[in-house]
Amino acid sequence: MLFVILAAWAALAGAAPKCRAQSGQAVRAPMEPQALAARTDLVRVDVSVLDKHGKFAAGLTRDNFRVLADGVPQPVAYFAPIEAPARVLVMLETSPAVYLIHDQHLAAAMALLQGLDPVDEVALVTYSDRPREVLGFTSNKNELLQALNSLHYNIGMGQLNFYDGLSSVVDALGAAPGKTAVVLLTTGLDSSPVSRWQPLVRKLRGTELVIFSVALGGDLRGDESPKSKRKKRDVKYQANATIQPEAANSLDHLEGFARADRALRLLAQITGGRAYFPQSDKEFVPIYREIAATLRHQYVLGIAPAHDGKFHSLKVEVFPGSAVDSNEPPKKFRYRVFAREGYIAPGN
């Protein structure tokens, strides 16, 4: 059965995270995450914070954070800095759409080996008309290398069901323990009806899964992709400019790469990940290193939810001083903060 091995492997091999108390003292894991999981009255918000150099901003405390739900500040009822090995499922496109650029495709996948630490775990799923599990979660990088070398690409005409494939992966990961990220190595193109998009958005808003989109195609993509002449910072992160949540509800007015680019941005934004549009093979290694480092170092916050069954937007702000004492917005570019865009509240 699809993904049975993946789920079983995750259950057996899920690494226990290492937690740090606010004092910087290490405490036994996974007491803090389990404590939050047991608090069903709290919304879990995983937050990645990078400084102006693109490195993890360590040493922050509860007082540095402000969480806004629908624009209204919320008390942070739970806080814990978390360090844990990265657990990454790579979802890799093998459709006719990427056959002509499969050399770049393989270079991008191979770069993942250089971006992972020995303790990080990775699983590999390919997709075209449907997802296919190639490798369950493992820290054995030689197994990943062998799996990548054995990939087959479809040629000719065929269906490309990106949205449905990702939806199936989300379902499979929902039963797996531990924090897992999905890295999409894809053109973002989908030949299925665009009506498949909205169910995927609704599903992702109800999960804690984080998605990192790495777009293939480089110069083949449209005007929305970053250009190589822009500053390095803008080339890497322009794709993460905030898109209003209501824009996620429909992609009907877009076609081709324009639709694909918007979808990849939104998938990252909805889940608190990042979207990358690399222009050359050299950019893949630092992208993967950043993804892995981001997953190993996070802050976990908890807030009290509404109880109306509706979607509520979230925004996390980080201040160099106390957020409680500040009436001003945080300084631009002091920190880059990544967290999911909202949550679906439980019913009454």
Overview of the structural elements:
- There is one protein chain.
- By secondary structure, the chain is α+β, with helices and mostly antiparallel strands.
- The chain has a domain at 87-294: Rossmann fold, CATH 3.40.50.410.
- Helix content is 28%, strand content 24%.
- It has nine helices and 16 strands.
- It has helices at 4-13, 31-38, 102-115, 141-149, 162-174, 197-205, 232-237, 256-271, 284-296; strands at residues 18-20, 26-27, 43-50, 65-69, 72-74, 78-83, 87-93, 121-127, 131-138, 181-186, 210-215, 275-276, 297-303, 311-318, 336-338, 342-344.
- Strands 2-1-6-13-3-15 form a six-stranded antiparallel sheet. A six-stranded mixed sheet has the order 9-8-7-10-11-12, with helices on both faces. Strands 5-4-14-16 form a four-stranded antiparallel sheet, with no helix packed on it.
- Strand 10, helix 6 (197-205) and strand 11 form a beta-alpha-beta unit.
- It is globular.
Set down the secondary structure blueprint.
Blueprint: H1 4-13, E1 18-20, E2 26-27, H2 31-38, E3 43-50, E4 65-69, E5 72-74, E6 78-83, E7 87-93, H3 102-115, E8 121-127, E9 131-138, H4 141-149, H5 162-174, E10 181-186, H6 197-205, E11 210-215, H7 232-237, H8 256-271, E12 275-276, H9 284-296, E13 297-303, E14 311-318, E15 336-338, E16 342-344
